[in-house]
Amino acid sequence: MSALPELAERNFTGKVSIVTGGGSGIGAAVADRLSKLGSKVVIVDTNDKDGQSIADAVGCDFIKFDVADLEGWEQLVADTARKHGSLDFLCLNAGIGSRPRGSSVKDDPIPWILSNYKNVLAVNIDGVVYGAMAALPFMERQGSGSILVTASVAGIRTQPPDPIYALSKSAVISFVRSVAPALAERGVQINALCPGSVDTPIQPDDRRL
User: Does pTM top 0.90 for this prediction?
Assistant: First the structure.
């Protein structure tokens, strides 16, 4: 499990958190840190082997889940709030790139752009919008809550190796900026995290650190 730089020492004792894409990389590190800060954590991931392994190591719940499933989101949030009593923090971290493992930036881009286009947008955009929509009613009723979206510097500056990934991250950054004022009026905070290159499984082989 990769280390996560020190977070502000916020007290998460008794708080309830959901982390998407928690089976590896940034999501696994976030789940680990939240647990150490006292939060009850629910990891969700499509990879049940990795997800359960991280959950066992962290000492938290794991649910196999596709973030592009709108109805599933409503059930996930309702079940989490019912079991743990609240939903205080939602980390919308799940994401994928359009380039297949082992591909090169010199390869013809058209095949991999078209083959993965809809799937990338479903996970990287729908997964964020659906998650925020599902969590908002619960957070609004309790008068507080925080949503953190893992975007990327690729959403801010050009990213020639994977333009579809960059497109998706630009979209979620714009979504967060646009919806933040309305959510703040309801007591809910939403922010986008824009990391640079991180050595996680999402990186194609030729860009691994």
Answer: no
